[in-house]
Amino acid sequence: MSIVEFRNVNKIYNKTTKALTDVSFSVEKGEFVSIIGPSGSGKSTILRCINRLVDATNGKILFNGYDVSYAGKREIRQVRKKIGMIFQHYNLVERLSVIENVLHGRLGHKSTISGMLGYYSEQEKEKAFSIIEKLGLIEQAYKRCDELSGGQKQRVSIARSIMQEPSLILCDEPIASLDPNASKIIMDQLNNINKTMNITCILNLHQVDVAMRYSQRIIGLTSGKIVYDGPPETLTKEKIYDIYQSNEGELITDVG
Ligand SMILES: Nc1ncnc2c1ncn2[C@@H]1O[C@H](COP(=O)(O)OP(=O)(O)OP(=O)(O)O)[C@@H](O)[C@H]1O
Ligand SMILES: [Mg+2]
């Protein structure tokens, strides 16, 4: 069974903006997939439909075989527990420490009360520290997040999502605000998590070269339609041109 499946999904915002047109694809467990395409092509909309931050207008979206389209509040919470989300701007609580932000990854697993009181078990704390260590942040553990560099913040947000024990991580432009060195660290970490923890990763990326270097598979979107779905090896210059409708796709940053 695929971990994510889109069947003929359409999304129209405000009755006027067609963001996705007849989008169908599936992602298998353990895959590392990048979605590329020009600004406004629908990349974020795809990711957001999976965890119901956005409601598709029609079509089917399955997560582990479960149709999320009809999920009620409770079910959506269950689905979100299993899906980590990484954003361009990290979405951390800046005034809290690294360790506190990472522990927040457990909130979806807790009762509201123990979450509100900030109650975490010793086991959870140990787990948080071991993840922080794995991501090379142990010296930052008690620092406030507003004291960290962008690359460190993104590692905290990855740590927080691993703390959730997700089966899928969605990354919306995870390296868009980072320099090439920090980007390489983030991409290597995501790759490592994918391989060692068997967590499926779906990323939206603007950097075609990065997508090609790291992904097993690339989905190219143009104006809400899939125009490429295959391995990086067969993504030719012509196809990149088709996706971007220009040479924009060649404007690529070098990472590593
Ligand atoms: N909340 C919203 N309300 C109305 N229109 C929206 C909304 N979110 C996205 N859109 C529109 O839907 C289309 C797809 O947007 P989306 O954000 O999915 O693109 P994207 O590929 O992620 O772009 P970018 O690379 O700039 O992040 C765009 O035309 C956008 O203006
Ligand atoms: Mg986007």
Strand order of the largest sheet: 6-7-8-3-9-10
Mean pLDDT: 93
Based on DSSP secondary structure assignment, what is the total number of beta strands? Answer: 10
User: Which hetero ligands occur in this complex?
Assistant: adenosine-5'-triphosphate, magnesium ion
* H and E order: EEEHEEHEHHHHEHEHEEH
Percent helix, as a range, is 25-40%
Strand coverage percent: 15-25%
**Low-confidence runs:** none
Question: Could you give a short account of the major beta sheet?
Answer: 6 strands, mixed
List keywords for this structure.
single chain; 256 residues; alpha/beta; 6-stranded mixed sheet; 4-stranded antiparallel sheet; 9 helices; 10 strands; 34% helix; binds adenosine-5'-triphosphate; binds magnesium ion
Please give a structural write-up.
A six-stranded mixed sheet has the order 6-7-8-3-9-10, sandwiched between helices. Strands 2-1-4-5 form a four-stranded antiparallel sheet, covered by helices on one side. It has 256 residues and is an alpha/beta fold. Helices cover 34% and strands 24% of the residues. The protein contains nine helices and ten strands. The mean pLDDT is 93. 41% of the residues are buried. It is globular and about 50 Å long. The protein has a domain of 68 residues. It binds adenosine-5'-triphosphate and magnesium ion. Magnesium ion binds next to α1.
